[in-house]
Amino acid sequence: MKSYQEFFAELKRRKVFRVAAVYGATAFVLLQVADLLKDSLTLPESFMPFILAVTMIGFPIALVLAWAFEMTPDGMLRTSAPAAGEIEGIISAPLSQRWPAGLMALAGMIAMLAGAWWVGRQGAPDAAAGAEDVSGDVRLAMSDLAEDDRPSIAVLPFADMSPEQDQEYFVDGMTEEIFITLGKIRDLRVSGRTSAFAYKGEDKDLRDIGDELSVRYLVEGSVRKAGNELRITAQLIDAADGTHLWSDAYDRTLDDVFAIQTEIAEAIAEELRVPLGLDDGQSLVTPTADVEAYDLYLAGRARMRERGALLAEAIELFEAAIAHDSMWAPAWAGLAEATEISVWYPSSYPEGSSASEYIHIAVAKAERAARRALELDPDNASALVALGSVHRDRAEWEESETTYLRAIALDPDNAEAHQQYGELLLNIGRVAEAVRATDRAAVLDPAGIRFGMLSTALEMDDRLDEALEAERRAALISNSRRTARLSARRFMTAGLWEQAIDIVDKWNQAHPDREDLFIGDRSQIADVVAGLRQGTLARPAEDFVALPTQWIMLGQPDSAVAALLADAGEVPFGRTLEVWRRGNEPILSDPRVEAFFAERGLAGMQLQRTPVSERTRPLALRESNE
């Protein structure tokens, strides 16, 4: 017992207890400050583990140094031996003099461990959490909409009734936010998040809109914003006969915008007699107390919908929203989405940056933002979709699939989640499943981009007629340059050059102020078409779109492989799907292509198409009477 007391007396004499107390308290504060800096400066995901590791490793080192050395007027010297009777004096002192030092050291250690626990807890939510329970909610296997007896509903773009008609981004954002809020009611099937915006400003019969969106009910309304004053009207319409089932007006301040969204969703659910289905403590909206952050967030979502060069502006707006409220998950999720999407749009790259440089930086940034959103809200489906896409971009196939399925389990009617999951399946050759996923996305949101990806899946499933039908619908729905270009490519790959040129001509005529869809003069395209028809063309012109399948059609498989893998080293993703395209079969056994698959963890992977006997017409292509 005596040696035990002497040891602790020596610890006190050498001020080890004091160092432990001060170090522990300082470490706690340091970890909290580092956590705040990570959020505000969007530092790498490895930042907090590094700070935690340095802090924990430094603790025993500090204790050893406190034991071995002491500060004196002459500087730091080795601790001297105790004076005669010094240890005995400490041991014999009253408890009130001996215990405080030990208790302070214990408190410091507890504070440091609490800080470490907090850091670990913040990083603990994982996209795979709950993945084993996703099968009950993932509705990809739903074979027909007739089997889904939930009330179906779409939200049409609200009208801007503001005095200056200058609140379009805010009004469109409110439309999207009401869509998201309704989407959290699991007993409603909410469709048309993207496609509904095609009806903006259109004076069309609501019954026709309901039929085109495949929904029974429609929500429409208006927003009037003047300063901090807000007036929102909303009404629920039965698209079958155009009757109004419910309507209301909300005169509030901007601070009440989240309450309005909740009240609208609750009123619609009550009218349609469906339960909200919320768990204890769960709400339909994730609010922020910072109105400026919400305004910036809505502006960011408006830019993100436009895609292209505006994605760079969307990223800046989401970052500004985070600067106002770094604890608001939707802003982090928006940043993750916009940043990941931007890698597919070179026009959004910073001036002077190379593709490989920007892509690596952007994918890492998107991951940090998605994980931060999930730390704040583990059930944020948008963040999960963005994180799933990051894993896909890095060829982390299993992690990507798990993350997408988690997102679909949380939000079964999320068209973006279904489409991105379908793109993953195409990349790994599971084409039959990809057809179902992309078909579901097109049913939920019949937008041009959805039909375009369905067309890709059908083409790879060796169902060219249906692929071209889906592509025609994409071209009819969307007037975007990207959709038109992809449509033209699909028809060219099928050898249907007249249809491809027709798409090009119509787009160019409709957009005289925009760059032509194809670079080069019109006669050059005609020469290529004639050469292919006659079999006399050895090589398309340098500035003409030359796909691997076209090189194969010209009997030049080496050129096809070269075109396929042209930037595979610089760009770490995007080529895997291209390899599987219909018509590339002659080059799949090429050693360079096999090496490409091996590098991406797909060695030995076989294309899994839908057996002919099991094919059914995609739901999105069926007419209402089928």
Task: Using brief descriptors, characterize the structure shown.
25 helices; 6-stranded mixed β-sheet; 626 residues; single chain; Serine Threonine Protein Phosphatase 5, Tetratricopeptide repeat; two-stranded antiparallel sheet; Rossmann fold; alpha/beta
Q: Uncertain regions: pLDDT < 50 for 5+ in a row?
A: 124-136, 139-143
Please give the count of helices.
25
Report the helical percentage: 55-70%
Rg from Cα:
31 Å
Could you say what the CATH architecture of the domain at 414-516 and 532-621 is? Alpha Horseshoe
The average pLDDT score comes to 79
CATH class of the domain at 414-516 and 532-621: Mainly Alpha
**First CA to last CA: what distance?**
90 Å
Number of strand segments: 8
Structural class comes to alpha/beta
| Fraction of residues in β-strands | 5-15%
Overall shape: globular
Largest sheet: 6 strands, mixed
CATH superfamily of the domain at 414-516 and 532-621: Tetratricopeptide repeat domain
CATH topology of the domain at 414-516 and 532-621, by name, is Serine Threonine Protein Phosphatase 5, Tetratricopeptide repeat
Explained architecture:
The chain is an alpha/beta fold. Helices cover 56% and strands 8% of the residues. The protein is built from 25 helices and eight strands. It has helices spanning 2-13, 16-41, 47-68, 86-92, 95-122, 168-183, 206-213, 257-271, 291-306, 310-324, 329-342, 355-376, 381-393, 397-410, 415-427, 431-444, 448-460, 464-477, 481-493, 497-510, 522-534, 548-553, 557-564, 575-579, 591-599, and strands at residues 69-72, 75-78, 152-155, 159-160, 189-191, 217-226, 229-238, 243-253. Strands 3, 4, 5, 6, 7 and 8 form a six-stranded mixed sheet that branches. Residues 124-136 and 139-143 have low confidence and may be disordered.
